[in-house]
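Per your request, structure below.
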């Protein structure tokens, strides 16, 4: 734990897959040191993290990107320098395979039964599937209900159960993803679980939970529906990246500047998404909503997103 971070917005260790290894940590150290170059704060990569040495002589070891950025921000006040488009800090590590986490659609709807993260992942709110024999077998007893013969006319009911309604929303979400343009399909997010909350305040609680270590390792946010606030709108791609050439060599700069801006609260009221080339056709896919890091994944070409 970085001693300089305290209860700052360092958050969970969301960037570890991309800062693994000496080369990536050295690139991140260079990128952080260039944010405020006049501060005389030194950042050195060490095994499993970074050593931050302050101008006063004090030092701290930080094990995560969030801790590193928080430590340097507190130790080096002053103006930020823009990223030099002629001096990339270096590329990030490329995780070898997809992480297998589950995508979440967050729906704000006061008229539907609430469905939390645990229920969405367990599938306990899904309609029970019946076999063909169960569908055709007659009931053992009528429990006082009138039996309907094949010759009697029946009027279908218009009501649906909450589980049927939830299943319909999930099916619509999957169908929407299926009709997206083919050229973007290989990198599009396909959600497989639905979380329903009655109000935007509850949705903010879910976003905070998604950014916490407990859920960050298991799920990521695919999209938000039903929220009128700016953080609930579809994010504009690339809005959080610095104006530099779109090359893997600037990966560390993009990662550091995103986390720096997030900790300073620049994304607290909005939605930001960045997809940055890592090399070999892979992309870093990051999304921040209301200041919470709710998606950080590697998208490999030819694999389902």
């Amino acid at each position: 734990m970085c001693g300089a971070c305290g209860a700052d917005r360092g958050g969970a260790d969301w960037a570890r897959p991309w800062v693994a290894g000496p080369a990536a940590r050295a690139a991140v150290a260079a990128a952080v040191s260039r944010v405020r170059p006049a501060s005389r704060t030194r950042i050195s990569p060490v095994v499993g993290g970074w050593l931050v040495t302050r101008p006063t002589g004090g030092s701290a070891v930080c094990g995560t990107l969030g801790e590193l950025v928080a430590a340097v921000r507190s130790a080096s006040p002053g103006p930020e320098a823009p990223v030099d488009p002629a001096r990339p800090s270096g590329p990030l590590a490329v995780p070898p395979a997809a992480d297998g986490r589950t995508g979440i659609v967050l729906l704000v709807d006061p008229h539907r039964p609430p469905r939390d993260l645990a229920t969405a992942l367990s599938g306990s709110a899904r309609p029970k599937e019946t076999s063909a024999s169960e569908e055709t077998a007659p009931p053992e007893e009528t429990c006082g209900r009138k039996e309907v013969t094949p010759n009697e006319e029946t009027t279908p009911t218009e009501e649906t159960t909450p589980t049927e309604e939830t299943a319909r929303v999930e099916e619509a979400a999957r169908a929407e993803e299926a009709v997206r343009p083919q050229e973007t399909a290989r990198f599009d997010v396909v959600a497989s679980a639905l979380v329903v909350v009655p109000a935007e305040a509850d949705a903010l609680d879910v976003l905070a939970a998604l950014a916490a270590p407990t859920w960050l390792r298991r799920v990521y946010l695919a999209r938000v529906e039903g929220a009128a606030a700016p953080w609930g709108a579809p994010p504009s791609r690339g809005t959080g990246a610095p104006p530099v050439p779109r090359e893997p060599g600037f990966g560390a700069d993009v990662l550091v500047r995103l986390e720096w801006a997030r900790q300073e609260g620049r994304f607290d009221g909005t939605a930001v998404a960045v997809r940055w080339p890592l090399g070999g056709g892979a992309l870093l896919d990051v999304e921040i909503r209301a200041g919470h890091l709710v998606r950080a994944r590697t998208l490999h070409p030819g694999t389902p997103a």
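The first strand starts at residue 42 and ends at 46.

Regards,
D.
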